[in-house]
Amino acid sequence: MLLYLSSLLVLFVIYLMLTGNGSLSNLVLGLIVAAIISLLMPKNTPMLVRIDRLPRYLWAGLQYAVVVIWDVIRGGISTARIVLDPKLPLKPGIVAIPYGKKSELGSAFSAHAITLSPGELVIEIDSEGNMYTHALNVDETLAAAEAGQAKRTRLLDVMFDS
Amino acid sequence: METVQQIIAIVLLVLGTFLSLVGVIGFIRLPDVYTRLHATGKVSVFGLVFLLIAASILTPLTAWKGILLIFFVLLGSPAISHSIASAAYKAGVPLVNTKRDDLKSKLERGSGKDV
User: Fold this and answer.
1) A150 pLDDT band (50/70/90 cuts)?
2) Out of B34, B43, B85, whose CB is closest to A118?
3) Which domain holds residue B49?
């Protein structure tokens, strides 16, 4: 039931965004389409979005977005500087960033945030939860990794792990 | 109001085009697969995001559609960069001028299979 309602909500929101039309007939049609698709989902689908955690998602998700966007801007500026510098000051390498054993969804989101910020690219995650990250500037990534990972982990724990 | 919107859109257009340009320059200048992925897979994607915001301001395309597109692009592009880099590493594509490689020692310590 929870799975059904959660997928119904997500599909309904996406339908409304795609059509961009708030009239009553469109709302009803969107609800019907979302309901039919939700009914077709297999029972054992892993639950990505849980409707009962919606307030938590909104608050922690907003903070998480701010943290990630800040990382992205910082990384974007330093990457653009490396690329446009005539001397091309590269220090590429692969560093292990520890994350620890968490839920699959939490690790996936953390890896996604690291990979999203320019200059860092997760290549592999091992069974202990270390993220092997390719970095354009090894020193900078190592210096920032610990604090950034801790900030993200706290917010992701609120959303998915407790 | 109209002019304010247009000015914002033009600033975003210029920024997006600049970032796309940086992505292409990086693709030409950087030495190997992994570093090039940083330029094309990230910087260019953010160029695309800014261009999409500008497009949803300037054109009659509904703004929600643009936001949804941005969401899916941001969700998808890191996955693509990761899988290309991972495949390249497992296929043995060499890293140029590397300062440090933690994954290599890990792979040698194990049986050489997937971590």
Assistant:
1) confident
2) B43
3) 2-109
